[in-house]
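Known limitations

Files may contain more than one protein. Parsers should not assume a single record per file. Below, a two-record file is shown to illustrate correct handling: read the sequence, read the token line, then continue until end of file.
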Amino acid sequence: MSATIRDNSGSISRHGRTNGASPSSRLKYAVFLLIGLMMAYVLWHFERFLIDPTHPVWQHYEPFKWLLLPHGVAGACALFLAPLQFSNRLRRRFLPLHKIIGSIFVIAVFILGPVGIYIQYMDEGQGAARSFTWETVIQAGLLMTTTAIGLYFALQRRITQHRQWMIRGYAVALSFVEVRVILGLTGLDQPLDWHVIETIVWTCTAMALLVADIANQVYERRSGRAAPA
């Protein structure tokens, strides 16, 4: 009579046979599919100017255009690499790669935060309120703090707490995408209204940790169901 070992990537027999993805894995795939669609929409709707040097939005970015490269690269690393960190299979089979990607994510976060604050400060000269700069300070602070705590727990080999805090950090990072999706789908991005944008950014930032903790609770409950009794 063979025993069956279950984990979050599916049910695996003693002989290594995979019996299919667990409900936790299917939910995780669905969430990351949604995130991928959101990112694709943002790239298509908001970031096409990057391949069009004549786009009028470059006038807005002129005062800090050279900061867009480190800000954009760091943001892309944080947003696109983080989902790989939540792959149980990747972590089990390629632990050194998991650590390398994690290191890149941490470095990216600590570039993204300060550069983002400075860019928002520069936007005050184009009509943004000082309160928007303070919101960016809070958002960047949350991103860097949650990531730093996640790194601390990783170094302490407290993996459950590490995962929970990295989920919180990624939820804060995703607010960058969520704001643009809301603006684009509702049409609130045109004409430019700093007060509207600031309100949406504050809302997404305020909701980030709540959404992350809901995700953590769902993950733990589903992981518990998938574990053997």
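...continuing to the second record:
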Amino acid sequence: MHDTATQVVESGVAAAIMRPMSKPDTAPTQVPRRARRAPDPGERLRDSTRTRQRILDAALAEFADKGYAGARVREIAQQAGVNTQLISYYFGGKEGLYNELMATWHRQEALMAREGASFADGIAGYLCAFAARPDLLRMFAWEGLTRQAGPRPPDTEPGPGEEPEVVDIRRRQAAGEIAADLDPGFLLVFLMGAAMAMVTIPEQIERLCGVRVDSEEFITRSDRQLRLILAHLAGSPRGSAGTPRPGEPAHAGADNGRPELPGDRRHR
């Protein structure tokens, strides 16, 4: 009897397993998908602008770290979170990226050149701009170190006549803002070298000046010392005794009355 009962139970279980599952009376509720809204032209423009800026920021970091020759578009794309084809679409490749960075810097320079600003204000503006974006200075340093490997930046080819910066210095010399016996080109080069020092010799700055290059104190003290130096370089309007005559280069006759320097044997 026990065996019969067991068989009945087993047959019932088997029947339950073999019996097809009954379908639900109603189908499961389908969650409607939200229609995807196409971005309006303004949004597309903002996305494009943000993407371009990410690419430019990544390119600046890459050029600052490796120079033009060592920079790789693939690395730039990876840092910007885009593919290399997008870089080609926006900028045409590595040279286009480099030229766009230089053009961006020139536009910033134009904004800093306020009409009526003093020479000291202009130089201090450069100092603050480079302190805020030291990667720019590093890129410029690489440009000098590997000048044959990369494209010549736009607007750097020597042209006929004097450069605008030199013309501006001569104007300031004529007004007495800068001593007339200083050569404008060399003055600008020396000031550029002083600005480059924060990325080329930061250890020497910290050793000699006792302040960290990346500190606000360095910028504040540099601004003050720069203005003092430029104040000492101030001259008198042209036509005063000892200044070049109109039309005469500022460096003409610079050896006249110049004290002999150590090792200078030209006058012996």
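Parsers that stop after the first record will miss the second one. For reference, the second record is described as follows. Confidence is low (pLDDT under 50) at residues 13-22, 239-268.
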